[in-house]
Amino acid sequence: MGKKRKRHEGGRKPSGDVRIEDAVVSKLAGLAAGEVEGVHMGAGASRAVGGILEGVAGGGSQTRRVSVEVGEKEAAVDLTLAVDYGKSVPRITESVRRNIIDRVENLAGLRVGVSLTLGAA
């Protein structure tokens, strides 16, 4: 459930499978979205401090607002985010979509579809 098996495509014979769990892709997508200026993934006034502590501890509120389904060669990402007042929503959401696709494709080797929902911070 929610795991992807990837075979080595190099010149050598593969010696096993690699499984990428939904939680890994969820974390990658949440971090990628948070890299875009003007985007907030967590909720509440303690977001900044909590983000620092979660980053150190390895946890993250990003995954609470990210839903992921990983298949054989692709992943579907549904993400809820908040955008700073005064920022262009179309421009920010396109940047988020591109960053998630780039990060997940490059780091996990999966094709990615991204659905975004604008929510309250």
Structural summary, described in words:
This protein is α+β, with helices and mostly antiparallel strands and 121 residues long. It has a single domain (3-118), classed as GMP Synthetase, Chain A, domain 3. Helix content is 36%, strand content 27%. It is built from three helices and six strands, in the order ββαβαββαβ. It has helices spanning 22-34, 47-57, 89-108; strands at 3-6, 18-21, 39-40, 66-70, 74-83, 111-118. Strands 3, 4, 5 and 6 form a four-stranded mixed beta sheet that branches. A two-stranded antiparallel ribbon has the order 1-2. It is elongated and about 55 Å long.
In which range does the helix fraction lie?
25-40%
The level 1 CATH classification is Alpha Beta
Q: Which radius of gyration do the C-alpha atoms yield? A: 16 Å
Cα distance spanning the termini: 31 Å
The assigned structural class equals: alpha+beta
Low-confidence stretches: 44-58
Strand content: 25-35%
Biggest sheet layout = 4 strands, mixed
- Give the mean pLDDT: 80
Summed up, the domain count is 1
Tell me the series of helices and strands, N- to C-terminal: EEHEHEEHE
Could you say what the CATH architecture is? Answer: 2-Layer Sandwich
Number of strands: 6
- Kindly report the CATH topology: GMP Synthetase, Chain A, domain 3
Label the overall shape: elongated
User: How many helices?
Assistant: 3
Topology overview:
Layout: E1 3-6, E2 18-21, H1 22-34, E3 39-40, H2 47-57, E4 66-70, E5 74-83, H3 89-108, E6 111-118
Parallel strand pairs: 5-6
Antiparallel strand pairs: 1-2, 3-5, 4-5
